[in-house]
Amino acid sequence: MSCSSHPPRSRFVEDLIYIVLESSDHWWPGDLVQLAQVSSAWLEPVRRRLFAMPSVHSFRASTRLARTLSSNPSLLSLVKGVELQPMPRGSAHITSQDRASLNFILAISGLQHITLGGLLSVKAERFLHRVADAHSVLSLHIDGRSMTHSLTPAECPSLEWDESIAFHFCNMETLHLTNIELAISFPSIPYQLQLSELHLDHVTITRGYITHLLHETPSLPRLRIRSIQASEVDEQVKCVLDSCAVEMFEYEADVEGPFAHNIFDNNSSSLRILRLVSFHFDFDTLNVIREHCQGLEVLIISGRKVSIPPCEWQTFIQRGHFANLRSLGLSWGTESHIHGHWSRPAVEDLLRTATLHGIHILPDGEN
Is the model more confident about 177 or about 30? Predict the structure, then answer.
């Protein structure tokens, strides 16, 4: 009688654990907890992933996170950033227990990325001053989207910027403000920021100028601004472009309207990438950009209000007005009902002309 035999079970290669975890940036925390229970080999890699950027959306969750970290000090070094977006309960009042847990989390050494949202986006400067190791912070996001339907002015997302925040976060590289009111105090002493990106998304400036925030910062690699109507921030944009060497500028409006030509009154020779979304764009606008932004390498125009037909784009390319242009993004259509969406032959002619002049036309939808 022969005994049934089973093939030996394959041994799992532990190095694959890191490959599995890195295969996706969207692991659910619950899935990571289950993976941590598979075997001891999974525990440490999962912990690193789970605690790298904790995200909490309630004061109860922030209290539990603070309790977990305080009772397991070895986990503190794994935390590289936090997303704190607790929503108000019955009232907007923050209890002493809530405050204690927030203070503990914001005091973690070595935090590089911080997002404050929910109730913490209301008078956000209160919580920024509680960040103990602010010199380690590389990116800061104040996100007021979840509070946009606040019923009272006291619950309105807001930030009051002054030089104390600038000095506190002296190594910050990215500042992202979303759906908040921003009051900027005129600086009483000189400073320069180390910003590589400033992103203002539906920010209402109630006092001061963006240039007061940047102050003596000589250059800004990336500037992204989105507003309901461009006319609300055109003057702010012009001041920044006049006083700071911006390399990439993305400007988007929810409501389509005219593009303010005087934004480029001065030479913007530092500008390499320009993306305009939802503006009335005609040949006069293109000529203004050509005259003042001669170093452009990438130009992207998106929206329904572009009145330049493909034959005029061809002429513009043939004349070599942008000597350094390497990529051109277009909406593949013209505002006028006479022209409408471009025909295939017109597009093919434009593509051939662009190729001859070393310009890559970005496919429709990638603008």
Answer: 177
How does pLDDT run across 74-113, given as a tens digit for each residue? 999 999 999 999 988 765 577 899 999 999 999 999 999 9
The b/e string for 298-311 (b: 16+ C-beta within 10 A; e otherwise) is bbbbbbebbebbbe
Is the pLDDT confidence value at 333 over 60? yes
Q: Tell me whether residue 221 is exposed, middle or buried, using C-beta atoms within 10 angstroms of its C-beta: 0 to 12, 13 to 18, 19 or more.
A: middle
pLDDT digits (tens, 9 = 90+) for 202-226: 999 999 999 999 999 999 999 999 9
Please report the sign of the dihedral spanned by the C-alpha atoms of residue 217, residue 218, residue 224, residue 227: positive
Tokens (6 digits) for 274: 């320009």
d(CA 86, CA 58) in angstroms, rounded, equals 4
d(C-alpha 113, C-alpha 60), whole Å: 22
Given CA atoms 29, 30, 31, 36 in this order, what sign does their dihedral have? positive
DSSP 3-state assignment of 164?
helix
- What's the rounded Cα separation, in Å, for the pair 280 and 164? 40
Within 8 A by CB and 6+ apart from 44, the residues are none
Among residues 149, 162, 151, 197, the alpha carbon closest in space to that of 177 is found at 197
Tokens of residue 111, six digits: 């935090």
Question: 154 vs 48, 151, 323, 357, CA distance in Å?
Answer: 38, 9, 52, 57
Residue owning tokens 């209160």 = 126
The three-class DSSP label of residue 210 is helix
Instruction: Tell me how long the chain is.
Output: 367
Question: At 298, phi and psi to the nearest 5?
Answer: -135, 125
Q: How many CB atoms lie within 10 A of CB 74?
A: 8
The whole-angstrom separation of Cα 259 and Cα 249 is 14
| DSSP state for residue 263 in the 8-state scheme | G
> For 98, which DSSP code?
H
Q: How far apart are CA 298 and CA 293, in angstroms?
A: 11
**Residue 84 · residue 115 · CB < 8 Å:** yes
Q: Cα separation of 136 and 109, whole Å?
A: 8
Round to whole Å and give the CA distance between 277 and 239: 20
